[in-house]
Write a structure and sequence with these properties.
The chain is mainly α. The chain contains 8 helices and 3 strands. Strands 1-3-2 form a 3-stranded antiparallel beta sheet.
Length: 185
């Protein structure tokens, strides 16, 4: 696994203390330490004999690297996938605009899939999702005799299986009111 470019090559005045990187990037210092533990960032430690006593310092370019990590997490990539994407960069350097274009284009199918899943969830959220629970009053309409179970386990309609069209499009039946049960005032 390639590791990020060492900030030791950066001039001391271009390095950022962990608190400064956290403030500039909007990412907590604890998250930056975690990213470093995961091999996504690398810091240089100040001399333990100095006033700063072994504090982490990062190259200024790590601002872009942290932004890349956060964007990849927002898309839904795992840390392993992010690590693999960063490992594709020569010498573990910070992604350039061209790198961003190339790497992010590979995420488009993942985003499209997530958008489709979220759209399907939004559109079925207030109705039965075919879980097979048979506990909702609408289940008899959307999932009669637990027919969704024939397609497999889980919330079948949420997973993309379509409910039977004729059954799903029917409005809920209103209970019949026996004659004489309505009081006149």
């Amino acid at each position: 696994m390639q590791t990020p470019a060492s900030p030791k090559t950066a001039k001391p005045d271009t390095r950022l203390a962990i608190g400064d990187l956290a403030k500039r990037s909007g990412v907590a210092a604890s998250a930056l330490r975690f990213y470093e533990d995961q091999g996504l960032l690398i810091s240089q430690r100040s001399d333990s004999g100095s006033k700063q006593g072994g504090r982490r310092h990062y190259a200024r370019g790590d601002l872009r690297r942290v932004a890349f990590i956060r964007a990849a997490q927002t898309v839904g990539l795992s840390l392993e996938q992010i690590r693999a994407a960063l490992a594709e960069l020569p010498d573990g350097r910070t992604p350039t605009a061209a790198d961003w274009t190339r790497l992010s284009s590979a995420w488009r199918p993942l985003l499209d899939q997530r958008i489709a899943e979220l759209t399907r969830l939004r559109d079925t959220l207030s109705s039965c999702i075919g879980c097979g629970c048979l506990s909702l009053s609408k289940c008899a309409l959307y999932n009669p005799a637990d027919s969704a179970a024939k397609a497999g386990p889980g919330a079948r309609y949420l997973l993309g299986d379509a409910p039977p069209a004729a059954k799903a499009s029917r409005p809920a039946a209103k209970p019949a009111v026996p004659p004489g049960s309505v009081r006149k005032r």
